[in-house]
């Protein structure tokens, strides 16, 4: 039975005159999943086409600037080749995925969206499909009549063959399975997770590329393989690529799309983009066969969706969200804008300012118009408002919450932390802080640790004790306030066997109702980690890890090892500058390397050469400057002036520290010391 109150988690977008080209268009279908799946799908809908258009225009502008050909006069004269379009499509998906993680309006830890999109380049009769997940793109091609390769006329009963333009990214596929398994994740069906089916240790690497040829066959089992944490029962995604799904990302579920570009030829007449709700009970060929019965693509959409819906009602107690775009290609080799037509219900919704700003911060921008400084000031204000002190732990005082622990306690907490996805990806410095921030909690027999339905904000590691997990199912008798319900699991700690289970990890990600109650069966001891402390640690650590990546991109540091780069990063300190304050000045002695942590600045190249005259551009978060101090053993002078456009915070590495670290590194290389 469908839930009438459940939001539709599908979304779609249609953009004609894409990148201001009347012959080009962008189509996409998004299928959200998880608690905030509708918000993830809408976020992708509102931003993917915008980001891609920006990337395409930026690349075209660079080519136009570099072109010396007489017939290339405007940006519209530039056509991207296949590889260039693939590159910008991939980058755009990654940017939107990163921005989704950063968004403060919804939580994508266990929510996300798939995305299937098509970019039409009308002048070249070319379509590029980008796929992330298990939605699908298919082509309906009119079959040849005879050896002379004439197409069967419509009046003689033309038939169409379904050609897949995408391949479902699921654990059925060997190459996708391999990536997931290499990250240490498990691939199991729900029945296997629940113990109803035996586990199969064979990962299928010696078998065919597909265990099931989705598109040609229907998965009649209804219990597909899913991606799971090595020791815990989440996230359970039935696909291996998506946007969002921050937890699954640590297990190898990636946002990079698979892409295919097809040169449209005579007979390529139907293109369908649809969410997996269409294909649960219909094959690719069935969908194309239905579409061929109609002259209007909107009527074709209605017919396919009606058929899919009926089949859902026939075979299931629920129906999935179903979304489809049908495109009728009216012809090829026509140099005009009317070489395709499409029909769908267009919803004119645009992303609000905070989402747009979050996207923009994930893209490197150049000074493009006179409103640039105003837009950057607005960006800073919005970001500051979204990072107010409070639950994110920005103002946590680690000196006050840090607690000395014995070597035995540290070993227990380190060992138990290995079972956490979040903590597996932490740096040693971050993990040390997490362990220092954990607080001991003595518990008595019969004490309720958490209650089902209450808001969770703590993660627990059991040092000693035994705890029952109880769940009150809907409609069952029980008192949530006293933690009643049926026993579904028991946690037992053992110091002798070095077994120290943990629970409540999802509460570290977002404030969500507890799914169960937990009671102590005997006296024991827990270690608790508060969400605000963890977020403060992750924010600090994320900045430091990003800093390492920035330093690695500096040409003067390309020859250094990663541990040497980390040494530079560890010695950098934060310094602040007020709006309109000069950070460095052209031709003055270079004293430090800088990386922007917060705020916006402007870098100007002084007119030392004719080509450099008047050049200036914006510097944003993670942009660096002052690298001249690393390239000369003599007195280095700055080759630019940098002025703060707002209050700015930078990571600073003094030249004296640079020289000291390099001496240490030289000693290590010569065997005289260790870092």
Q: Residue-averaged pLDDT, rounded? A: 77
CATH-derived topology of the largest domain = Phosphatase 2c, domain 1
CATH-assigned homologous superfamily of the largest domain: PPM-type phosphatase domain
Query: According to CATH, what is the class of the largest domain?
Result: Alpha Beta
Estimated share of beta-strand residues: 15-25%
What is the CATH architecture annotation of the largest domain?
4-Layer Sandwich
Shape: flat
The residue fraction in helices comes out at 25-40%
Task: Describe the protein in words.
The chain has 675 residues and is an alpha+beta fold. A hairpin with a 6-residue loop joins strand 8 (226-228) and strand 9. Helix 14 (428-437) runs antiparallel to helix 15 (531-552) and helix 15 (531-552) packs across helix 16. The longest helix is centred in the first third of the chain and has 30 residues, at 37-66. The N and C termini lie far apart (63 Å). The model is unreliable at 202-210, 334-394 and 608-613 (pLDDT under 50).
């Amino acid at each position: 039975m469908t839930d009438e109150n459940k939001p539709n988690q599908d979304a779609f977008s249609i953009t004609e005159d894409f990148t201001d080209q009347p012959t080009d268009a962008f189509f996409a279908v998004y299928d959200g999943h998880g608690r905030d799946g509708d918000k993830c799908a809408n976020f992708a809908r509102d931003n993917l086409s915008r980001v891609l258009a920006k990337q395409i225009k930026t690349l075209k502008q660079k080519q136009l600037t570099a072109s010396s050909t007489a017939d290339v006069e405007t940006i519209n004269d530039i056509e991207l080749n296949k590889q260039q379009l693939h590159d910008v499509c991939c980058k755009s998906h990654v940017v939107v995925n990163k921005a989704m993680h950063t968004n403060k309006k919804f939580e994508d830890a266990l929510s996300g969206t798939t995305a299937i999109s098509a970019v039409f380049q009308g002048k070249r009769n070319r379509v590029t499909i980008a796929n992330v997940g298990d939605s699908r793109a298919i082509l309906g091609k009119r079959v040849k009549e005879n050896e002379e390769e004439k197409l069967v006329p419509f009046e003689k009963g033309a038939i169409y063959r379904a050609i897949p333009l995408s391949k479902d990214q699921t654990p059925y596929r060997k190459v996708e399975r391999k990536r997931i398994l290499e990250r240490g994740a498990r691939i199991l069906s729900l029945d296997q997770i629940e113990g109803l089916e035996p586990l199969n240790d064979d990962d299928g690497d010696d078998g065919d590329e597909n265990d099931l040829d989705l598109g040609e066959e229907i998965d009649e089992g209804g219990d597909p393989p899913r991606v799971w944490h090595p020791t815990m029962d989440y996230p359970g995604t039935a696909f291996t690529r998506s946007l969002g799904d921050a937890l699954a990302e640590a297990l190898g579920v990636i946002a990079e799309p698979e892409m295919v570009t097809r040169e449209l030829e005579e007979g390529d007449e139907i293109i369908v983009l649809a969410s997996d709700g269409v294909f649960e009970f219909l094959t690719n060929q069935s969908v194309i066969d239905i579409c061929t019965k109609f002259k209007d693509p909107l009527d074709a959409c209605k017919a396919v969706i009606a058929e899919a819906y009926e089949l859902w009602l026939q075979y299931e107690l629920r129906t999935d969200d179903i979304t489809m775009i049908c495109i009728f290609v009216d012809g090829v080799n026509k140099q005009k804008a009317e070489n395709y037509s499409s029909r769908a219900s267009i919803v004119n919704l645009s992303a609000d300012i905070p989402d747009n700003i979050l996207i923009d911060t994930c893209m490197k921008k150049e000074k493009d118009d006179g409103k640039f400084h105003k837009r950057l000031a607005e960006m800073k204000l919005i970001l500051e408002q979204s990072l107010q002190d409070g639950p994110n732990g920005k103002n946590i005082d680690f000196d006050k919450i840090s607690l000395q622990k014995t070597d035995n306690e540290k070993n227990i907490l380190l060992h138990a932390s290995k079972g956490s996805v979040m903590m597996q990806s932490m740096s040693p410095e971050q993990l040390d802080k997490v362990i220092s921030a954990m607080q001991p909690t003595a518990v008595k027999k019969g004490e309720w640790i958490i209650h089902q339905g209450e808001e969770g904000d703590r993660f627990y590691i059991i040092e000693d004790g035994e705890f029952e997990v109880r769940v009150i199912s809907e409609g069952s008798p029980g008192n949530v306030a006293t933690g009643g319900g049926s026993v579904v699991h028991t946690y037992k700690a053992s110091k002798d066997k070095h077994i120290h289970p943990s629970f409540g990890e999802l509460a570290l990600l977002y404030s969500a109702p507890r799914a169960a109650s937990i009671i102590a069966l005997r006296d024991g001891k827990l270690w608790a980690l508060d969400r605000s402390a963890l977020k403060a640690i992750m924010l600090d650590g994320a900045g430091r890890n990003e800093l390492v990546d920035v330093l690695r991109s500096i040409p003067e540091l390309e020859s250094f090892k990663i541990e040497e780069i980390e040494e530079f990063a560890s010695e950098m300190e934060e310094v602040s500058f007020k709006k309109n304050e000069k950070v460095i000045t052209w031709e003055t002695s270079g004293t430090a390397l800088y990386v922007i942590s917060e705020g916006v600045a402007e870098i100007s190249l002084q007119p030392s050469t004719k080509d450099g005259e008047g050049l200036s551009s914006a510097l944003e978060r993670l942009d660096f400057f002052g690298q001249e101090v690393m390239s000369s053993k003599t007195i280095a002078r700055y080759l630019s002036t940098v002025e703060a456009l707002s209050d700015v915070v930078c990571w600073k590495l003094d030249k004296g520290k640079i020289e000291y670290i390099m001496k240490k590194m030289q000693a290590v290389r010569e065997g005289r010391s260790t870092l």
